[in-house]
């Protein structure tokens, strides 16, 4: 274990009757790192994080929080984890401020520390202006932001978020993603589950692709994309395909094909090679009308690894 590892889980396993919901899952998260568990509904994300959070008994494996063994009975680990479940755990008749005060006391905060922390979390969640309205009058996104705020009250060094943007409006979604990035910037380790590829790509330093209870592949976005050996594609729409031999001869171009005024190029790094390709096309007398760049994404990685789409 490296010194700044906030979470280590090894060989986690959970069965429900004959169903193996989580099968030999291992990964680590460092302080300040955001780790994404990306997989479709039923992949085993919630079961995995419930075991890590210490709210579900595991059938096998080990969890360490900041180096210490952690299970359903250990309060030391729970004090270091902020767990935000998918379902809202709020009192609808109380205001945001009242909800936060209640949960802050539950975490053992008292007196002036409750007041100060509640105000900080209201700001963080972007709810200061509506702090005294009953939660039942909030939008779905506001409730979700408050739910995350509750998980942050005790300043945990490890934050576990279970699909925090499911069903929220785009504005709240953006606010949630920004606040998670800010927390990671302050050194909080984040475990983030999602079935949205774009969120994993935008937010996560490393991603574990999970399907049928197993982690199929793990790495940075670039590493995962590299794993399946897919290359970037550039499509030029032009007045003809006469520049094809010139473009095919460029060292950046792996494959080139053209017909009906469209030139299709396969390249290693589209962003870097695009200016050179456009210059070469112009030199060869090709009038380019449109350019389209397609980089392989985690959706294609998922398809490659599991033979099915991330979303049905
Ligand atoms: N308490 C339970 N009893 C029986 N089966 C369960 C239980 N909890 C989960 N499962 C099953 O275990 C598998 C993994 O479920 P889990 O909820 O962990 O997946 P998930 O990736 O979080 O999906 P979702 O996004 O739908 O929550 C699924 O097949 C699910 O039906």
TrEMBL record:
One of its GO terms (molecular function) is ATP binding. InterPro entries: AAA+_ATPase, ABC_transporter-like_ATP-bd, ABC_transporter-like_CS, P-loop_NTPase. Pfam families: ABC_tran. Keywords: ATP-binding, Nucleotide-binding. Residues 7-237 form the ABC transporter domain. PANTHER family: LINEARMYCIN RESISTANCE ATP-BINDING PROTEIN LNRL. This is ABC transporter ATP-binding protein. It comes from Nonomuraea spiralis. The lineage of its organism: Bacteria, Bacillati, Actinomycetota, Actinomycetes, Streptosporangiales.
């Amino acid at each position: 274990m490296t010194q700044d590892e906030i979470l280590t889980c090894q060989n986690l396993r959970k069965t429900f009757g004959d169903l193996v919901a989580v099968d030999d899952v291992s990964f680590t998260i460092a302080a300040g790192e955001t780790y994404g568990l990306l997989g479709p509904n039923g992949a085993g994300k919630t079961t995995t994080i419930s075991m890590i959070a210490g709210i579900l008994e595991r059938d096998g494996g080990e969890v360490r929080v900041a180096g210490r063994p952690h299970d359903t009975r250990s309060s030391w680990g729970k004090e270091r984890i902020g767990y935000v479940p998918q379902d809202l755990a709020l009192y609808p008749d109380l205001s945001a401020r009242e909800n936060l005060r209640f949960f802050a006391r539950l975490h053992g905060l008292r007196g002036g520390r409750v007041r100060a922390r509640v105000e900080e979390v209201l700001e963080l969640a972007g709810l200061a202006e509506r702090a005294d309205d009953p939660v039942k009058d909030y939008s779905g996104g506001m409730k979700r932001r408050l739910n995350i705020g509750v998980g942050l009250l005790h300043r945990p060094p490890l934050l576990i978020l279970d699909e925090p943007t499911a069903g929220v409006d785009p504005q709240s979604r953006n606010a949630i993603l920004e606040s998670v990035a800010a927390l990671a910037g302050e050194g909080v380790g984040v475990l983030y589950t999602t079935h949205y590829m774009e969120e994993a790509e935008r937010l996560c330093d490393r991603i574990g692709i999970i399907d049928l209870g197993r982690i199929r592949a793990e790495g940075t976005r670039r590493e995962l994309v590299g794993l399946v050996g897919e290359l970037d594609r550039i499509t030029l729409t032009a007045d003809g395909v006469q520049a094809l031999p010139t473009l095919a001869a460029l060292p950046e171009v792996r494959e080139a094909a053209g017909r009906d005024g469209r030139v299709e190029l396969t390249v290693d790094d589209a962003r870097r090679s695009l200016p050179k390709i456009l210059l070469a096309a112009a030199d060869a007398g090709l009038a380019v009308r449109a350019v389209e760049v397609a980089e392989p994404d985690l959706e294609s990685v998922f398809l490659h690894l599991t033979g099915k789409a991330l979303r049905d």
